Amino acid sequence: MDVLYGLVTPFRDIAGSPAFFVEVLIGGVAAGLMYSLVALGFVLIFKASGVFNFAQGVMVLFAALTLVGLMERGVPVVLALGLTVLVMILLAFAIERVVLRPLVNQEHIILFMATIGLTFFLEGFGEMLWGSNVKRLDVGIPDESFMVAGVLVNRLELTAALTAAILVAVLAVFFHGTRIGRALRAVADDHEAALSIGIPLKTIWVIVWSVAGGVAIVAGIMWGAKSGVQFSLSLIALKSLPVLILGGFTSVPGAIAGGLIIGVGEKIGEVYWGPLVGGAIENWFAYGLALVFLLFRPQGLFGEKIIERV
Amino acid sequence: MSAQLEIRDVSKAFGGVQAVARLSLEVPPGEILSVIGPNGAGKTTLLNMINGFYHPDRGRIALEGADITRHRPSQIAELGVARTFQNIALFKGMTVLDNLMLGRHVHMKSGVLASFAYWGLAQKEEVAHRRRVEDIIDFLKIQDLRRRPTGSLPYGLQKRVELGRALALDPKILLLDEPMGGMNQEEKEDMARFILDVNEEWGTTTILIEHDMGVVMDISDRVTVLDMGQKISSGSPDEVRSDPRVIKAYLGESRRA
């Protein structure tokens, strides 16, 4: 009876204080968009090359480390940002040359293993270059809140949300409205056919890894500004796995929706139902939801249904 | 007339299997050449070497006098060599229109940044290419299928769309790997007509691999027969048909006691 009571009362709380509920909701959306940004990097590479890039999370960390490292050495923000973009593009070239090209036509699992190797390499390399202490990233957006219609809004979270939205719109246009985007989708669909009509695989891979690197920069800045640049940043990547399972591995809108559902779900769960189970709902909610999806809808919300003809 | 495509003394082995052995072949512009032979004769390997999927172990391949032996597939496509595949390699998740537009890829010039910065220009280019693609759609009589995902089409139509995508390159040389494989008689006749029409209208040099001897004899200017990676006969359909070496390769040797 007590448990039942505990399950139901949060609804009364929500109805009792809608402004607070909206604040929780906004917090959830902001966190969710961060997950989406990381998941987006995964989806881009998976779509274009069928490679599940385990290193996406560490790419976020690496991008943020590079940016902070440069700024600490007195490089102005804009220049540092430009240099970071350059570094991520160089990284894309290096990955294509050293990892992807020698492994072309190999099993997916082998490429996946290679990206795990890449994860460890980037972690070590980043630490060697920039040190392993926690760094503060100040991009000039104050982490402060203001009131809108009785609801507390955080300026940093708002900026992050807007940036994510713009990024998604640009990527959608890129994928569906441009020649290169169409070529990317073609490569994802059939390597041999793409080659036979004159699409150079190497160029496409460099482009897609560069774009994923760019997405990693944005995600790195947002996470870094919020919670400092530290090595636990790469663990966010783990949270983006359930996001992918929810949204579907090949869907850009899916990555966004998945991130939002998980971000909002875990915040609401934590704030309202947390006390009932002693908290920490935030830590397992995403994985629980992913498990349910794996059981009942393995292709995710927007993923392509996997039909194997036998 | 000098050869448009020249294959000189080309060999290719996979492990211990000699797929193609010291093969030479000259194809003049505008010819329809059929390559026939038993399974494993090296026909598909030959096509894969021409379009750059494989590089020969030795020998030389030249297109209009220029060496393309070590070129990448995408470079060879840019030079005007298009192909279809034995097992159909369409972009199955994309529409017929997208597939054909992708066939125009090598002719489109706007790069990544340009396609954002000069949106209008890129759009204008898109329209021009769309016009060419519509010509091909009319030519192949697939007007109703523009918006259909290719994966959902019946087999015969998929083969036709794949031909369309190859044609969208405006190729100088068309490589067709069993264009009529798995088709019924009516579909085969349609495909044969398309191949002849392409050749007549645009003068496209065509090299095809086909098993249906009726079709091969009907549409080819010349037939080359491969067996165990070697050329055993080459000539007009009539010449090849009556060549004892060909009969031997196909039917086996009749031994007298």
Give your account of this protein's structure.
- The complex is a heterodimer of chains A (310) and B (257).
- Chain A is an all-alpha fold and 310 residues long.
- Chain A has a single domain (2-296), classed as ABC transporter involved in vitamin B12 uptake, BtuC.
- Chain A has twelve helices and two strands.
- In chain A, strands 1-2 form a two-stranded antiparallel ribbon.
- Chain A starts with a helix and ends in a 14-residue tail after the last helix.
- With 257 residues, chain B is α/β, with parallel strands linked by helices.
- Chain B has one domain (5-251): Rossmann fold.
- Helices cover 39% and strands 23% of the residues of chain B.
- Chain B is built from ten helices and ten strands.
- Chain B has helices at 43-50, 73-78, 96-103, 112-117, 119-139, 155-167, 185-202, 213-219, 237-241, 244-251; strands at residues 5-14, 17-27, 32-36, 58-63, 66-67, 81-83, 173-177, 205-209, 222-227, 230-235.
- In chain B, helix 3 packs parallel to helix 6 (155-167).
- The mean pLDDT of chain B is 89.
- Chain A binds chain B through residues 174, 178-180, 182-183, 185-186, 189-190, 192-201, 207, 304, and chain B through 51, 53, 72-75, 77-78, 82-83, 85, 89-94, 98, 101-103, 105-106, 108, 110-112, 115-116, 122, 126, 165-166, 168-169.
